[in-house]
Design goal:
The protein is α/β, with parallel strands linked by helices. Helix content is 45%, strand content 11%. The model has no long low-confidence stretch (mean pLDDT 94).
Length: 225
């Protein structure tokens, strides 16, 4: 029998982009094309640290440095995310160890959910590309809750739907905004270094509960209280 999972969670909640799939470079490529079309400067790593994980309704006003009406940001979302879907078609693969972790959680009867800021079309596309459309019966999107990350609403709603107390949930995230959101919800959070280096995570206040490069590394780590 394998040893208990680290932190012995009663439920596990995954972000999508940069977490179950290492795809943020494709989002960056899509944004570079979008930015060129609209005369926006390239995103810096500092920009990404404050934008990654947020909802598009909040990202576009920051990028354009003005109020962006709903109809306008929805059009920008369709344009930029459409670029992402075109660029990522046939190029996505689950992050190393994801299938093994899913199998382990199923064997241990630990429920799972997805909690993401991605729009619905991206969620459908990414899960289909990964052949994981049926793997997560609970999916909560940022547009279904009052506040987006770094507020904890999307994670709290996932915990509610799973029927598990937030303190008993373990979150997997790649973005500082998502890590902050998980902490704000009273959850332990594993930071995956697909988008930001370990040193960046260590400077967060508070930092992730645990940091690893992929799910294999998490599964190989000894259990901890």
């Amino acid at each position: 029998m394998p040893p208990p999972l680290r932190f012995s969670p009663r439920a596990v909640i995954f972000d999508i982009d940069g977490t179950i799939v290492d795809n943020m470079h494709l989002h960056a490529e899509a944004f570079a094309r979008f930015a060129e079309r609209h005369g926006l400067p390239p995103l810096t790593q500092d920009d990404r640290a404050r934008l990654d994980g947020r909802r598009n309704s909040e990202i576009f006003p920051i990028l354009f440095k003005r109020e962006v009406p709903r109809e306008e940001w929805l059009a920008y979302e369709q344009e930029k995310e459409g670029l992402y879907r075109e660029l990522s078609r046939g190029r996505l693969a689950p992050l190393k160890g994801l299938h093994q972790l899913i199998d382990r959680l199923r064997a241990d009867r630990i429920p799972m959910a997805l909690a993401t800021s991605a729009p619905k079309a991206n969620v459908i596309h990414t899960l289909a590309e990964l052949d994981l459309a049926a793997a997560f019966p609970v999916i909560v999107r940022g547009d279904e809750v009052a506040r987006g990350k770094p507020a904890p609403d999307v994670f709290l709603e996932a915990a509610r739907r799973l029927g598990v107390a937030p303190a008993d949930c373990l979150v997997f995230e790649d973005a500082p905004m998502g890590i902050e959101a998980a902490h704000a919800g009273g959850m332990r959070v594993v930071g995956l270094t697909t988008s930001f280096q370990r040193a960046h995570f260590e400077q967060l206040s508070p930092p992730p509960t645990f940091v690893c490069c992929d799910f294999d590394e998490f599964l190989e780590a000894p259990a901890a209280p």
